[in-house]
Amino acid sequence: MPNIIKTIEKKPYILAIAIVLVIVLWMLSGDSKADQKAQQSDEHAQERLPKVQVMPLVAKNINKNLTFYGKSEPDKIANISARQAGQVLEILVEEGQFVKQEQVILRLDKSDLAAQITSAEALVAQYQTEYEGALKLNQQGLQNKVLTMQAQAMLQQAKATLVSLELKLERTEVRAAFDGVINKRLVEIGDYVGIGDPILQLADLDPLIVRADATQKEVQGLEVGQATFAHVLNDKTYPGRIRYIASVADDSTNTFRIEAAFENPGMKYKAGFSTQLNIELPTEPAMLLSPAFMALDEQGNIGVKVVNDDNIVEFKSVSLAKTTEQGVWLWGLGEKANVITLGQGFVRAGDKVEPVFTEATSN
Q1: Overall average pLDDT of the 90-118 stretch
Q2: In a domain, 362, yes or no
């Protein structure tokens, strides 16, 4: 011991080294205990995973039904205009009346067209005789070809004048351009109309058309000729077919215009009724859930939280198939899913949980 003391007195740095070694060993001992405590804390946390109530569900095939809203419209509508100037002498139809194509609906004053036609017919006969005589003289070499061609030109001009007058006379009778209903009358007896002046409005109501706008997701399941049903205010259902789907989306709404046609024999149903358009698509697997089980993700998308085979929470985006008194049918959950029915508000996608399974209610 005296030797150790003497050594320390001669070499004091040895004491400093010894003190440092003691401090280091003490610190290492503390870290080891801290690591042990942290490890124990982690193991304890793993043992305390959040519990959630989970219901295993199996999907059923449900008819997908797209619903649009619009109103019934005419297949086509046209303003019938005068093709000949004159005074209105006779109106043969009333507003709301059904007419057939080419039916006379109005007559204009013929003026002196009949006399002009008689004069034109006489000129045609005269020029026909002169042309035939010039042709014979030309064949006999007694008249040159130029005079013969002049006679022929006079004859053709007279014929053209006669045809023009006959068209004017024909156009004094205004006819329906297609089968339809007189929607609006724009003139009265005694009015004078010029060429191009509107006379009446004609609407074709067979078929009736319902126009609607479909989103880019909805339009993918549609095709021309597909069956559809219209529901109007009288609660009746009318079958029809899709006849048109726009190939280019509307710039302002980013939707696609679709048209469905419905037979309307005799045009007994009117245009302008508020109409619900239903289109059935092929079946898809859906699950019946209470709306209380639905949630929103961080982007605001509607979905349902489920637990996968590794007990990890997943968020599944869903779309509504239909609503019933028992709940809502949702697409997007696949054929099978373990849906969190209690505690979904306290866990997020990616969290590991301890599922507590309950029996699914009968759908």
Answers
A1: 91
A2: no
Residue at 363 is within a domain = no
Separation of alpha carbons 284 and 280, rounded Å = 11
User: Is 99 buried (19+), middle (13-18) or exposed (0-12) by CB count in 10 A?
Assistant: buried
CB 302 within 8 A of CB 317: yes
Gap between the Cα atoms of 312 and 310, Å rounded: 5
CB 313 within 8 A of CB 307: yes
- For the chain, the domain total comes to 4
Nearest to 206 by CA among 268, 259, 258, 263: 263
CATH no. for residue 249? 2.40.30.170
- Structure-block tokens of residue 87: 């005074």
Whether residue 218 lies inside any domain: the answer is yes
- 3-class state of residue 22 by DSSP: helix
Q: What is the gyration radius of the CA atoms in the chain, in angstroms?
A: 46
pLDDT reported for residue 139: 76
pLDDT at 29: 60
Helix (H, G, I), strand (E, B) or coil at 23: helix
Q: Residue 173 sits in which domain range?
A: 78-203
Q: What is the mean pLDDT of residues 355-362?
A: 77
Q: At 225, is the secondary structure helix, strand, or coil?
A: coil
Please give the Cα distance from 208 to 269 (Å, whole number). Answer: 8
